[in-house]
Amino acid sequence: MEETTFDCDLIHSIMKRIWTLRTLERENVATNDALESEVGAGSSKKNRTTSANASALKLTCELLRVFITEAVQRAVAIAEAEGDTQIEATHLESILPQLLLDF
């Protein structure tokens, strides 16, 4: 039985959005730096688009699935230990530091 995972198209869209925003930020910084510097003409950096192949995208989706599953399981354990029946933000906050170190 195969476990469900995140929609790869959704994750790819999110990644493309982040890459686009970072590219725009870099271009804005580069433009400002070029205006402030005397050299300003030309750059050794190439403007390349960032992309991810299908295997990398599938692996990213699986990593996100495992990360979220582990976070929920750890938060459930904390909630049960405190006698709560629902996970709250405080439970996630308490498990987050160790979870990030483990991943």
TrEMBL record:
Cross-referenced InterPro entries: CENP-X (IPR018552)
Pfam families: CENP-X (PF09415)
Family: Belongs to the CENP-X/MHF2 family.
This protein's name: Protein MHF2 homolog
Keywords tagged on the record: DNA damage, DNA repair, DNA-binding, Nucleus
Organism phylogeny: Eukaryota, Viridiplantae, Streptophyta, Embryophyta, Tracheophyta
Annotated region (Disordered), positions in chain: 32-51
Compartment(s) where it occurs, according to its Swiss-Prot or TrEMBL record: Nucleus
Primary residence: nucleus
CDD domains: HFD_CENP-X (cd22921)
Classification via Gene3D superfamilies: 6.10.130.30
A cellular component term, taken from the record's GO annotations: FANCM-MHF complex
A GO term, aspect molecular function: DNA binding
A Gene Ontology biological process term: DNA repair
